[in-house]
Amino acid sequence: MIDATPGAWRPLPGPDAILQRRKQIVADVVRQGFIDDLHPLCGVLDLDTLDELMWSLQAVYPAELPAVHTIAAKAITLRPVLARFADAGFGCEVASPGELELALAAGFPAERIVFDSPAKTTTEIARALELGVSFNVDNFEELARVDQAVSQAVARIGRPRSVIGMRLNPQTGAGAIDAMSTATSTSKFGIGLADHRDEIVTAFAMRPWLSQLHVHSGSQGMRLEHAAEGVRLTAEVAADIDKRVGFQQIQRIDVGGGLPVNFRSDRITPTFADHRAALQAAVPQLFDGTYTLVTEFGRALTAKAGTVVARVEYTKVTGGRPIAITHAGVQVATRSIFAPEAWPLRVEVYDPHGRRREDPALVQDVAGPACFTGDMLAVGRELPAVHPGDLVAVPDTGGYYFSTHFSYNALPRPAVYTVGTDSAGDRRWSLARRAQTIEQIVTEAGEPSLKPLPFVSPACPSD
Fold it and tell me: What residues sit in the active site (predicted)?
């Protein structure tokens, strides 16, 4: 685990430190030849920033408070990076069979994995029980499947080791980004608390093996106090269940993740300490040791550690507006391209030698390589004049931007590198994921031995 003792205290990096690391990253990308004609963009994760974010979460929850901190696999589906979280004592939250196998391959013990898919198949439920993976039931129909699976597991292996819970939707409303809001009255996630409170309590009372409540009411664009209200309502249900059954049946409360990230600057805000303060103000009983807390942060643990670096291929002026054509677009910044107001990204300009340009700003557009008009990283942005051969760096892309590749135009997945400071104080680079080759794209497009079905002409209508 990360050493969180006072002597090993590691403060969160300030904006200046993050900027200096990014400047060095771009310079090193050029020096090591990571950008060329075959590989005109790459991603980089700064492990120092990643470690400091991990440490800051663990540090605000003292060792005497039972807690399981998990990294949301969907935010960073890179096996070497997930392994770093596993080595630091984290668990892993997964939402699909692929993410489950990735977590196991990265070295997370089964008892520190939480499986949160809203569409678990019977096979997936049985595998979770066999492995001893924790999971949360998303709806009453799934609960009926789990009833049967638990009975079968008891007959085969005895009492399952899995911590089994139920995901609640506190129905507290949306935040600033509707598509990211998980606690609306009609959200697809969990069982509506206002709709089914009595049924939820009864379901637990009938099943002593249900011992966890899960809520995920935070998200990008959500105030901390709003998210904490969902946790408070969930804790009230836990108290109702325990009162109904006459003992403490609820052993764990999973508060999810969803801590927003500041995409406007290099300042890390809000912090995990801010998140804990909001929870403690709303639900002080969470911190008296009664329950084990589970967290499922993703973007907040990874975003500030990541940078996309891409080459500028051409520049032109259209309608009086300078436009830079780069190799970073919808394939790596899908959410930002399709919802730029909700997911704006900063863009920095570096010269071909990796030196940050500080020239007077001009209003310019920065476009991606995909074949549609909306593939724009920035529109009408004030930036130093961009030239062919320059590099653009896109900060805050460590969360999701390396794990949600969009294969439009058969654009390949870029290489992702990691860099961190070793015990001697030197910065060491490693390859986290190889760049996808054109040959791999062609292979994935279908087997050459497969023959298309013969064309059958439609019958002519009768006279």
Answer: 371
- Residue 215 within any structural domain of the chain: yes
Supply the CATH number for residue 126's domain: 3.20.20.10
Q: Which of 300, 335, 350 is the C-terminal boundary of a domain?
A: 300
Q: Any idea how long the chain is?
A: 463
Calculate the CA 41 to chain-centre distance: 21
Give the whole-angstrom CA distance, residue 25 versus residue 23: 5
Q: Which of 136, 111, 94 is nearest to 103 (CA)?
A: 94
Catalytic residues: 371
Q: The pTM is what?
A: 0.91
Are 289 and 376 found together in one domain?
Answer: no
Contact between 401 and 306 (Cβ < 8 Å): yes
State whether residue 307 is helix, strand or coil.
strand
In a domain, 4, yes or no: no
> Which residues span the domain enclosing 168?
61-300
Q: Could you read off the pLDDT of 109-129 as tens digits, one per residue?
A: 999 999 998 889 999 999 999
pLDDT for 456 beyond 80: no
Q: How many domains does the chain have?
A: 2
Assigned domain for 18 exists:
no
Output the six-digit token pair for 397: 């892309």
Task: Cis check for the bond before 458: say yes or no (omega within 30 of 0).
Answer: no
Max distance between CA atoms of the chain, in angstroms, equals 92
At 84, list the tokens.
């770093």
Per residue in 13-63, pLDDT (tens digit) is 999 999 999 999 999 999 999 999 999 999 999 999 999 999 999 999 887
CA distances to 252, 290, 363 from 49, in Å: 30, 33, 31
